[in-house]
Amino acid sequence: MTEKFETVTWVHWYKQSAGHTLILIAMLRKSTSTIPTYGPGFSKSRFQITYIDNMSNLIISSTIEQDEGLYHCAYMDWTESTWTGTYLSLKENSQRISSFTVVQEPTLSNPASDTDLETLQCSVLSDSVNATCSGEPSMFWFRAISDTSYPDFIIAEGKIPENCEKTSNSQKKCSYNFTKVVKSSEGAIYYCAVAACGQILFGNGTNLVKSDQDKKTSTIRIVLVIILICLAISVTLNVIFICYR
């Protein structure tokens, strides 16, 4: 990484990883020495800083995964300071493939009453051999009011796994349960989402359909409305007929 400037008294190099504040790599003062002063955790063995002809270079040797991030160069004189930044993206990290599979059960549920307690389960299958990142995945639940709408209502925020077991020598299964009182008249699709390795994976969804009893009730209501309309028309016609006799 190279930064060029006209006049300068101090040159500071900082590193900023995602979600973290600036960390001083090193600083160099033009008027006193060309040897930089390094911050905690950084040394000349991997981070070399040069300052030649108003140009500063930061050279990182033997890059590792943790080196990815935004690098700031701040150059300062007596009256002002100017900042520039360069993002270092490592190819190995950008090509990382998630080794997680999401399985959501059940796919269809039909609550019989307004007090039914539904338990939805979301299982995460991970390949521990090919895993490229550490830490357990986080779980989220969303609800879509209809099959044509996007899941925009958050039901539960990230949780730690409730039950984890090894299903084979290389695969691990973690299950998450979500329990909710679901009304028989509440037609909605519930989705689980897993956040892991910088990615978000969605389950196929659980469709909570309206109960048959609720459908029958709706049908009866429609029939009654039609009958009432017919009766109202009949009464109106009879009144008109009597008036014209």
From TrEMBL:
Ig-like domain boundaries: 98-194
Keyword Cell membrane: yes
Transmembrane segments: 222-244
GO biological process, one term: immune system process
A Gene Ontology cellular-component term: plasma membrane
Principal place of residence: membrane
Compartment(s): Cell membrane
Keyword terms, alphabetized: Cell membrane, Disulfide bond, Glycoprotein, Immunity, Membrane, Signal, Transmembrane, Transmembrane helix
Any Pfam family: V-set
PROSITE patterns: IG_LIKE
The protein's name in its UniProt record: Ig-like domain-containing protein
Organism of origin: Poecilia formosa (Amazon molly)
